[in-house]
Amino acid sequence: MSENKTGKYFKYAIGEILLVMVGILLALQVSNWNEQRIASDKEKTLLSELHQEFVENKSQFERVIAAHQLSFDTCDKWIAEFPIDPETINLDRLPLRPDGLHKRWTFNPSQGIINSLVSTSSFELISNRELRKLLVSWNDVLLDFQEDELNSKKFVMEVLNPFMNKHFHYTANYSDPRLDISILASTEFENLIWQRKEHLIDILVRDNEFSKIQKTINRIIELSDPEKPL
Q1: Tens digit of each residue's pLDDT (9 = 90 or more) over 120-145
Q2: Smallest Cα–Cα separation from 220: which of 125, 119, 143, 137?
Q3: Alpha-carbon gap, residue 184 to 174, rounded angstroms
Q4: Which of 3, 87, 112, 131 is deepest in the core (most CB within 10 A)?
Q5: Distance between CA 193 and CA 196 in Å, rounded?
């Protein structure tokens, strides 16, 4: 009888231990589920903020590119008239200076969310590997594009604008008697227009920097869309 009692007690003890272990495992599982749910909610919030930041950045980028394109088109209008003969040229056909030749806009996107993500542990919450890669490479892509813009801006401010201010009226009133339109026939003027166009080619065409940043922005917007499942 004593042996039976011992056996029953031993089985009971084992059962109690198993119940405790199952309880602990269930508690751990519930804790893991809660942690995953909290992490998922945080990721959704971060993605939503990132998405909005890059939607706004895309809007700014498109405005900046439109300004560069306007300057590019203005250069082409001038180049189409070369060589200019001041005696026979129809002055009304010449581009107006405010058309965009002197525009020097630069793309300066908002980066509060992306910088916060990349530089903190919050970055680990982003589960999409492609998005993580794009966020890490974003700064390099941006700097490559901005380098061309800054070179163009420097040329406009230090070379083109001083020349234009010296020889032209700001409103491009070619009938102004104070204006010596013979400057339009100079190789100096032609070279400045060609140089301006070269800088704009660097921004819009050469080395695919424009295409890279455009694709990166669009892809980040797509991958961070809060309406899409994670």
Answers
A1: 778 888 999 999 999 999 999 999 99
A2: 137
A3: 11
A4: 131
A5: 5
d(CA 175, CA 65): 32
Please count the CA atoms within 13 angstroms of the CA of 136 that sit on its side-chain side.
9
* Contacts of 70-76 spanning 24+ positions with Cβ under 8 A: 70/99, 70/100, 70/103, 71/100, 71/101, 71/102, 71/103, 71/196, 71/200, 72/197, 72/200, 72/201, 72/204, 73/100, 74/99, 74/100, 74/101, 75/101, 75/193, 75/194, 75/196, 75/197, 75/200, 76/197
What is the pTM (predicted TM-score) of this model? 0.81
| Domain range summary for the chain, segments of one domain joined by + | 44-223
Instruction: Give the H/E segment covering residue 48.
Output: helix 2-81
Comparing CA positions, the residue from 131, 71, 80 lying closest to residue 99 is: 71
What does the angle CA 47 – CA 50 – CA 54 come to, to the nearest 5 degrees? 135
SS (H, E, C) 53-93: HHHHHHHHHHHHHHHHHHHHHHHHHHHHHCCCCCCCCCHHH
Residue 47 near residue 64 (C-beta atoms within 8 A): no
